[in-house]
Amino acid sequence: MIINNCNLPKPLYDAWLANEYNPGETDFSASNIVLGAKEYWSKKRSTGSINTNADKSWSSFIGTLIHLGLEYLLNEHNRLTEDEGVLYELEIHKEIPFKGMIIGGTIDGVMIYPDGTMVMFDWKTMNSVQFIDEKKMKDYTLKANFYNYVFAKSGYDFKRIKYLPIFRDWNYAKASRSKRTDDFPTLTVDVPIKPLAETEKWISDRIDYFEQYRNTPLEEIPYCTPEERWESKLEFKVGYVDADGKVDRMHNGCSFNTKEEAAVEMMKRNGGTISKTGKHIPPKKLSGIKKVGGVATKCNIYCDIGNAGLCDFKLKHKEK
Known about the structure:
There is one protein chain. This protein is an alpha+beta fold. The chain folds into 2 domains: 11-225, Lambda Exonuclease, Chain A, CATH 3.90.320.10; 235-292, no CATH class. It is 36% helix and 24% strand. Helix 6 (134-152) packs across helix 8 (196-211). It is globular, with a radius of gyration of 25 Å.
């Protein structure tokens, strides 16, 4: 049987959309506590009715395969224990009560060194451009410290948290031509560990934020914030207009928060200059305005509730 909308055999299609994650009895996990209230409550109230499209699941599918492969190889060969005396556990799930609810989640693993030092590690599949995205790192730091809090209350005492990005777009041929000695398919990055009291307050504030909308109809819950929508900063830049009428080669320092401000700069540049003799000298090339950013990446590409018709942000803010 072929699934017509994506021309895939059904076994592959089913595997592609398989979700191996089991949240247990948790009300809040590291993944859903960073959502906007509208997305959180839409998912809570519409269990089973929100489906992820196959074309949006490729990254998740690759990540799942890598996780399963790493678990299998580490469990089968156990080389760390044999060679270095390092003990480790994989895929550990913990839950604790918090403000009358259950918070918890699953971490990829814990390494315990001979001196008793405990290190949490978590691997993430991503493209290299995501690794340098400050918003992504901030999001991951919040999630890692959420896990640290839950596991600390469960008896774990992590001295370090290791984040292991695995790059989907790494290429051996390109790396072999690179002058960088650290060009490798994965890296090890230390995540800053915040005081438990600070993380506890953040979790408490997030839960209060969600709870205020518990009985609010979905259509009345505010849209996610720009940060929750992964929205890039909206700017209006002034640059030269090329032969095709497109704005190219941005002028240095000509980035503005409003189109009106950019228009003032554009008109000034298009007005030309006056020579010492008083003669008007028109510009060699005309300048124009280019809108940059202001795109809600999550809403436009990844948001399941938008695709299911439970949020109209994407429809109302569709690019003209």
